[in-house]
Amino acid sequence: MSASPPDLDQVAAALRQVSRGLAALADAISGASQHPEEARYLAVMAEWGRRGLTRDESSRLFRKHGFSPQAAGGWVKGDWLEVRDDGRRYLSDRSLQWLADPEADDEQ
Q1: Among candidates 68, 71, 60, which has minimal Cα distance to 10?
Q2: Distance CA 43, CA 49 (A)
Q3: Which residue, 24, 59, 88, 99, could crosslink 69 as a Cys pair with Cβ 3.0–4.6 Å?
Q4: Which of 51, 63, 48 is nearest to 9 (CA)?
Q5: Which regions of 20-88 does DSSP assign to beta strands (E)?
């Protein structure tokens, strides 16, 4: 039995992760002072918005931005995500506030 070819979405996600890794390495070498991981958090939250996502949808979104799908558990524990009675995942009020003003959570 031969292995099936990889899904193109999986290949694209893997390439994004590689490119982010190379960008982080370039930032480290050049001494860049920006926080690329923070930018990724903001990108996930901005794309997520106020809509509820299924487990699969949230996993795809995390992968798209270079995070492991399992990171969602940490986001829930950290009060950045909540799972509601409908089984969908939503950004918490804390996330929505931080999305509106990333400096706000630093002050808490």
Answers
A1: 60
A2: 10
A3: 59
A4: 63
A5: 81-83
Polymer length in residues for the chain: 108
3-class secondary-structure state, position 53: strand
Q: How far is CA 69 from CA 11, 26, 31, 34, 73, in A?
A: 16, 25, 29, 25, 9
Dihedral Cα 85, 56, 41, 103, nearest 10 deg: -10
d(C-alpha 75, C-alpha 68), whole Å = 12
Model pTM greater than 0.70?
Answer: no
HSE, side-chain direction, 13 A CA sphere, residue 88: 10
pLDDT digits (tens, 9 = 90+) for 30-82: 555 446 778 888 999 999 999 999 999 999 999 998 888 999 999 999 999 99
